[in-house]
């Protein structure tokens, strides 16, 4: 069994449901650090889903619902820490406005 530290996602989710990371076949992934940065002058929100393999994002798998990120603010995403993605599970996000919130997520992949 190998444990690998991994950058799971670094980027700007879209204003529609955007897959950020999918756990590989025979791989379990644990989220260890997560933050979002708003470098604009407008307060924005973002939502996250942990979606089981074969499912789609919806009310039954939402982890963070419309978390507010103030102007020029960095926010730790404590709700994501410790979440485990089983093989084929994925993490997705929906930003209020595309290209305005930057998300950084890292974790450990176990194969």
Strand and helix map with partners:
Layout (H helix, E strand, L loop, with lengths): L2 E9 L6 E5 L5 E11 L5 E8 L10 E8 L3 E4 L7 E2 L4 E6 L5 E10 L1
Antiparallel strand pairs: 1-9, 2-8, 3-6, 3-7, 3-9, 4-5, 4-8
Q: Could you please describe the fold and organization of this structure?
A:
This protein is mainly β and about 110 residues long. The protein has one domain: Jelly Rolls (Sandwich), CATH 2.60.120. About 0% of the residues lie in helices and about 55% in strands. It is globular, with a radius of gyration of 14 Å.
Tell me the total number of β-strands: 9
Fraction in helix: under 10%
| Average predicted confidence as pLDDT | 97
Could you please say which CATH topology applies here? Answer: Jelly Rolls
Q: Supply the number of helical segments.
A: 0
Describe the global form: globular
Uncertain segments are none
- CATH top level is Mainly Beta
Structural class: mainly beta
Q: How much strand content do the residues show?
A: over 45%
What is the alpha-carbon Rg in Å?
14 Å
Give the termini separation: 6 Å
CATH-defined architecture: Sandwich
Biggest beta sheet summary: 5 strands, antiparallel
